[in-house]
Amino acid sequence: MAFKYERLDKDNVVLLMVDHQAGLLSLVRDFSPDDFKNNVLALADIARFFEIPTILTTSFEDGPNGPMVPELKEMFPDAPYYARPGQINAWDNEDFVKAIKDTGKKQILIAGVVTEVCVAFPTLSALEEGYEVFVVTDASGTFTPTVREAAWERMSQAGAQMMTWFGVGCELHRDWRNDIEGFGGLLASHLPQYANLMQSYSQQTA
Amino acid sequence: MAFKYERLDKDNVVLLMVDHQAGLLSLVRDFSPDDFKNNVLALADIARFFEIPTILTTSFEDGPNGPMVPELKEMFPDAPYYARPGQINAWDNEDFVKAIKDTGKKQILIAGVVTEVCVAFPTLSALEEGYEVFVVTDASGTFTPTVREAAWERMSQAGAQMMTWFGVGCELHRDWRNDIEGFGGLLASHLPQYANLMQSYSQQTA
Amino acid sequence: MAFKYERLDKDNVVLLMVDHQAGLLSLVRDFSPDDFKNNVLALADIARFFEIPTILTTSFEDGPNGPMVPELKEMFPDAPYYARPGQINAWDNEDFVKAIKDTGKKQILIAGVVTEVCVAFPTLSALEEGYEVFVVTDASGTFTPTVREAAWERMSQAGAQMMTWFGVGCELHRDWRNDIEGFGGLLASHLPQYANLMQSYSQQTA
Amino acid sequence: MAFKYERLDKDNVVLLMVDHQAGLLSLVRDFSPDDFKNNVLALADIARFFEIPTILTTSFEDGPNGPMVPELKEMFPDAPYYARPGQINAWDNEDFVKAIKDTGKKQILIAGVVTEVCVAFPTLSALEEGYEVFVVTDASGTFTPTVREAAWERMSQAGAQMMTWFGVGCELHRDWRNDIEGFGGLLASHLPQYANLMQSYSQQTA
Amino acid sequence: MAFKYERLDKDNVVLLMVDHQAGLLSLVRDFSPDDFKNNVLALADIARFFEIPTILTTSFEDGPNGPMVPELKEMFPDAPYYARPGQINAWDNEDFVKAIKDTGKKQILIAGVVTEVCVAFPTLSALEEGYEVFVVTDASGTFTPTVREAAWERMSQAGAQMMTWFGVGCELHRDWRNDIEGFGGLLASHLPQYANLMQSYSQQTA
Amino acid sequence: MAFKYERLDKDNVVLLMVDHQAGLLSLVRDFSPDDFKNNVLALADIARFFEIPTILTTSFEDGPNGPMVPELKEMFPDAPYYARPGQINAWDNEDFVKAIKDTGKKQILIAGVVTEVCVAFPTLSALEEGYEVFVVTDASGTFTPTVREAAWERMSQAGAQMMTWFGVGCELHRDWRNDIEGFGGLLASHLPQYANLMQSYSQQTA
Amino acid sequence: MAFKYERLDKDNVVLLMVDHQAGLLSLVRDFSPDDFKNNVLALADIARFFEIPTILTTSFEDGPNGPMVPELKEMFPDAPYYARPGQINAWDNEDFVKAIKDTGKKQILIAGVVTEVCVAFPTLSALEEGYEVFVVTDASGTFTPTVREAAWERMSQAGAQMMTWFGVGCELHRDWRNDIEGFGGLLASHLPQYANLMQSYSQQTA
Amino acid sequence: MAFKYERLDKDNVVLLMVDHQAGLLSLVRDFSPDDFKNNVLALADIARFFEIPTILTTSFEDGPNGPMVPELKEMFPDAPYYARPGQINAWDNEDFVKAIKDTGKKQILIAGVVTEVCVAFPTLSALEEGYEVFVVTDASGTFTPTVREAAWERMSQAGAQMMTWFGVGCELHRDWRNDIEGFGGLLASHLPQYANLMQSYSQQTA
Questions:
Q1: Smallest Cα distance from A74 to chain E, Å
Q2: Residue B118 appears among annotated catalytic residues
């Protein structure tokens, strides 16, 4: 049976940002804090750049889990935002699911904290309902690399695709000519080593 | 063919704790001793918290493998307990299997030492008999990370799902509102970093 | 259903070298620079040794991505070479795909920078069109080992086979007697430890 | 479709030891030399303990690859032994395959150097012919852990099962009561940490 | 010039616990949370076991740094405790230094968070005043292993001695016969692998 | 001979930023690009916060080494800046040394790329001239951790002190009360995990 | 002041093997069990080869620490052997120290378990008494690499020299011509990779 | 006492290449084979570039240790070359030492295999005789990183300076203007990432 390559399509995808909260972030230890912050914000920038509908949710944000990180709130001031009263699997929150369904999109990008719970549970739920699910693995964090590997294995076995923010951005953009400066700027602001290439280039060709 | 997400269900699951014995534990080197002890006890606490039927078994406990660790004995004083006279695969012990079947549950949570034998063999046997099997990977230990990876690969290929104690607890709990204090206390006692969040929170909101 | 082992066949395979450009190479951090350079050149030597049709392509080579590394240009002076004007997935470049189809080969060897984009995207496209795809993983580089693992998982899930340059060379050669000196020389020039074996052997038997 | 657990069966399995040669062993860097030597000899001891038919083969043993390590020769003085004149995939050697078929076994245990070639190629060939193949991963070595991971992925994808010598021994033994002293002695001689448990036990119970 | 071995002397030593606060602990990533918690509590148990005068201090505990972890407060209810109003180097707090000097001890054991600041600064200050300083390295944590290495280098260069809680306990105890059960119990409660040895021993000799 | 603790003194220290150039930064592989960028900018922010005289220098900035990274230029628009015409050891540039001496400071903070050359050489030169030298190790990068360790060893042996930007900031600040908001803001902008603590705190106490 | 190179001298050195006991060995996790066993036995073989007086000691061998490993007892049947009744620092055992002094040697080789206690304490004591102390670091084991690093730092700071069994053997042998076959055999039996070189050599020159 | 910075001086230094033999190189596992080969050849190129007198020596080159690697022989056809008949410490070979002394140089650069023996022993001997010794750590290899660390510690304690080939080249060159193209070419041929910078630069400025 032939494989069918369903590419990420900016007109058919919704992004779910799950539980990137100030308290929960202190649990993330499979990425350095700098790297993880950068990865999360890079994904957020991608969503804005491609005008992808984005849905935010948090778990118990008034308790020790803490508030959603302010950068995300600021970047998505008008996005649907669901402070879940208790459901651990965000898919158990009817408002959240309704918001997804209301977008009419068939592809889901998802990232969250922690990977094996806040990402894996809604991923499995979404797969069951027929969505294509693309996990943004480097914008999702958890306790240890070993825990992460188990989470990836479970999600992959169920049919989710493991991606990273850079791959997501490139698959959505398709062609540099769609916006060279915009996309280049996005990469430069989240890849210091790419920014260096650009700076050397611009000086040397000046 | 659509994926079906069969969640861990506290009313339909049985936990198997296989060969967590004082001697065998000295063989476990893919986790630090502190981490591994914590993971095993966290899983045990989860079983008690959700009142999941739990079955214990040991291999040759009168020899160098040593006795089951006392904490588990104390936590499950009334649990079925099978000191296997020689079977390496616990599933070859008829009493053990009968105890599982008598629970009437269709989902199995399993953890043990060492992963590629004491966990993998009964996992494969249970899968063959139609059980859904969820391996609690971080409460299962073995000689090296490389050995662990091979064991995961074999079990996953056969259809078992790789989980961790934190994911198990969260998938069973479903909703914080079912018992906020109880579940929070469980997490705090096994996640020092989460306990810190709770302590800061309680002081700052005092 | 029985597994069918379709071996790499030097008469039925085409090699794609995607975006090994001077600027992009500075992004590769899942291999040491020495190791990666050696792996890429070893793959190139294999292609020349077995006279495998090879197709080169670059992305935006006049900008910060930089020119294709000169060693590859020199090794394949007559190979089809496509400086893509903007397409990120090389398979979106019609000339590139036409060149592949014109070879009439049914197997594709692919390597490139970065793995999750420049390798993964054309790999998925080629699989969709019915090609057998063999990814030369150690001649493909990316930001971190974690990113690499996600890329492998996605490509493998779709049916691509993960290989390395040494395995590719051996699977193509089939039998040392086809050319002992030639193949031995190829290995010696890219495996210092094998060259040492050969040198000790030749001295000791002199 | 239900999973079927075909256990390793000492009466239905043949062991293939491929290219454990003095020169080639210097290429193995995904295990320490002490660990790898121990793993290979442990597997050999298992074969002798369970009287599993064992077939040895080497590649170009008169050249830099060097002779088979003497310990294996001594342990299997009467085993079929094929010094291949050039075939890289041992399955391309008719005598070797005939020797396997003559055993009438349907399960294959395989280990060798290097993993992605000398193990992977015959593994894929054997799978194609309908054998069940169990790769003894820790008695198989290669250049780097990354190369190993690619080799495992390819073999696993094709249906081979990833095991280790300890798991193999335990799955074959089934029940300690079949030979407590013999099996315990085997473990003690290859697991220093298990030997320590046994020594403490015997002193303390003396 | 001969080396003089000044052993840790339980009658001549004072323990400083610096800034083990709920918030700051989330910064510690050179140890796993389980390991670090265990190390800190083991050191505290040692201080109580040997009745070593212990002095606690915190930095800005009403702000984001958070309160001292409750376990330490409970273990040392009567210890001098200095919530520093702003001094980063605890040695700049006159009350803290006076408390140290009032003990009349000439040896200092110190642990804290983070290593290169809260431990290193008072260590250097104490060395300047002629104290012998023993840094309990595994009860002191910081951002990364690289930061830790730099901190160790600086302190060691100045004359501080790098120790760990286990070494501290053993050097203070001198002879098991001073209290076999007490010291054995202390070790067992903080070294799961040692507890296992004790449990096997007690069962086998029962 | 008693140790003398000469603390970093904001009124007696000069910062040297050596060769943080766009091209050279692609050589740095002992830190992730995100981490390294953050470390360098954190050090720059510290210099500005404490108004420490800062001197910039580059090596061959018109060639492949590339221009100084623009962030540093922007942060220190009026700082002395020496584009060295060829001297590898910046101390061989008379203007650079004169600028240092003109500050009248006796303590030197230094960071640069690569550690064993651009940092180590001027460090050794400055030590020879009687300066106290504090190497900001995490704002200095090089090819591999092994190269870094050798560089640290050489500099430390000569009397330089190994520090990190966080330790430098804290040793300069001395007391939070000197500027709570300013220093807290500085930390929050370079330590995502500290920013999270502050955010949770401010919400919870709101 | 010039450095004086006092080489290890087989006529002026005594070897101390401290607490290599079956129970304690389960605590060693900074080496793999195979590697550590090999290192300890290699050191023992060196002592026998050079006829170095060797002194054995154990701590509480009737309890959970377990008996000295039988290989050492067998290799040194006539060596002084002190089962310490309680002293943690073996140097506190007068019989042990007297045995050392009775040898009249001025150089001490020491190895043991665990490094920061059983090795470090007598090392510091011996240094104080004017002995030259050479720590055989790879025949000494402890809980983690981090603990080991702290122990090395403390011992090195006091003047002990960090060595390994291979270096010890070579420094004692001085010249291959003193016994080519004997020394070569010793290396071959503990360095599988060297044994391979010898085997290839002997075959190729046969 | 002030530190004196004695820089490497191309007119006052001699390079010793000790035992880089085909057999012994198979023992080196603290660097990848590609990296190590590159490091050794880079050092050799440096010696030729600066016309530094170079002395070669081997140990038992007619036996399993194997011949000196041919690249070194070819690069230094006229260099003094001592095939030692048995001395392990090359400094025990009178001809070797005489050759060093005949150069009249006071600084020694040394590299070899294995680090703790072939490098450390002559390093300690040379220090004793008053030479300044600079160990080229990355052109010196051994069994494991742990063995390397012990060797560095011993040599550093005795006064040797730990360097790397890149640092050596830069300290010898002093100023790019002494030979921009020559030195740049040397770097480009041994630093693929630097070659990439140069290639991008030359294209972009063409």
A1: 22
A2: yes
